[in-house]
Structure formats: structure tokens, C-alpha cells
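Async update (no meeting this week)

Hi team, since we skipped the sync, here's where things stand on the single-chain job. The sequence we agreed to prioritize is pasted below, unchanged from the tracker. I ran it this morning and attached the output directly underneath so nobody has to dig for it. Comments welcome in thread, and please keep replies under the output.
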Amino acid sequence: MEVFYFPKLSLPYFYGMILNNTPDIGYVPNRIISLVPSQTELFHYLGLEQQTVGITKFCVHPAQWFQTKTRVGGTKAINSKIIHQLQPDLIIVNKEENVKEQVEELAADYPVWVTDVNNLDEALLMIHDIGELTGKLSHAHSLAENIRDNFKELDQLQTSNHKLKTAYLIWQKPYMTVGGDTFINDMLLRCGFENIFADRKRYPEISISELKTANCKLLLLSSEPYPFKQKHIDELAAQLPGCKILLANGEFFSWYGSRLLKAPAYFRKLIQGYS
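Output:
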């Protein structure tokens, strides 16, 4: 079987065929498995209730799907036996979320579509192509346009937070943040925040001393993958005087499907929380 790549992006991550034009596997799929939580939520938004037969244990949205759909393991620990039982005619995966070797194993038996999303423009392109791939292009186009319009309104928001030196933590012990080549970094920029670790790649480990040296003024503690709480704010505040520390809903910063429709409104509230 072929591995279908998200077109118009950089070099492929998995072996297989790159589609140079529009997504086309020769049919509209009727048995889809999603191995990406944010894209599972997108399938629900596009009305793919009957077509979506399998999801991961991390696909918590929508709640009714989490309760009723067959779970095929985690994003990085796929249960191949369950997938074979479901006999999908399309599996949707993501370069960052899923493991290359596991995806290649699935691709030996089923059509696999790999997405690679690192910023808002690529997210909108992904939404468009998923719509075309699943026969929901009109609905996907409307969603993408609404998301684009909402982010334009956010861009027009004039605040004193412009270029505010910011760090975004996703883990502790060790502390880990986000580099400049991540989707989260793009969301930070659209909030008017300056990622003080934008010169680094992906998800580097950092120290408290590095936050101090970089003169961090706003520290965001994400709700995922590590579930930061108020107690972590209290611990860090004692070590970082003069730095504003806030909890951040990680889904709005890192989910690149239909949740983006609500992200700008959340970002506005977050900006107001700093002010």
C-alpha cells in the first residue's frame, strides 16, 4: 500500500508516494481511523460520524466519541490487532504525533495519509485537504475561512503585550519548552508574544537560570502534556520574581483542527489575564 503525504510541505518523513496535486485515493473512504486527537475532533466537526470507526485513547473530543468509538491504543503505542479487526480504508496520522515505524507497518496493509502541521497556514491547508479527501470539501472550506477570519481579528488586537518575552513550558523534571519550529510557537507569535527560545529546535530542556538570563516576563504553563497546576505557579514564582506566570490551556495552543475556531477568543482572554 502507499503512504500518502500531506502535499506542498517540506521533505517527506515517511517512505512512500508524495501527491503533488490534490488529495485523491480514488474513492471516498467509509472506514477511517484517526491516530491524531485534534484531527479526530475535526472529523466530528465535518460530520464524519459514521465513517470514523477508530480513534486513540487520547482523542477526548468529542466526549461522545471518546465513550463510544473503538480505541486503537495511544498515539505512540498503536494496537495493530484492533486496527486489523476494524479493516479501515484510510488511516490518518501525523508526523509529530505518531511513530514512523508503526505507521510504516500499517502502510503495508492500508492507505495512510500523513499530515505535517507547524503553523496556522499549514493547519488551514490540512483542513482543506482532509475535507477533499473525505468528501467534505465545502464544509472544510467554510471552517478554514472562519478560522482565518477569527485570527485576523486577533491580529488586529492592539495590546501592550507586543513582543513580550515569553516562555511556554510543556513538561517538568526536566523543564521542557517549545522551539521556533513548532505549532505552539506560531500561536505564541499570533498572541503578540516573543518566544525567548525560538532559536532552538522542537522541545528543548531548559533551566530556571536560563529563564532568568533571557529576562522572561511571561511564563505559560501548559495543561498538556504535563498537567501544570496552581501549585507549580507557586513553586516557580518564588524562583522567578518579576515574571508573570499563568496556566495555559494546551489544547488551544497545540490542537490544529476545528478547535482553532475557538482559539482566538481564548487567546484574547489570556492576553487580558496578563494585562
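Quick observations from my side:
Residues 3-151 form a domain with the Rossmann fold fold (CATH 3.40.50.1980).
DSSP finds eleven helices and ten strands in the chain.
Reply here if anything looks off.
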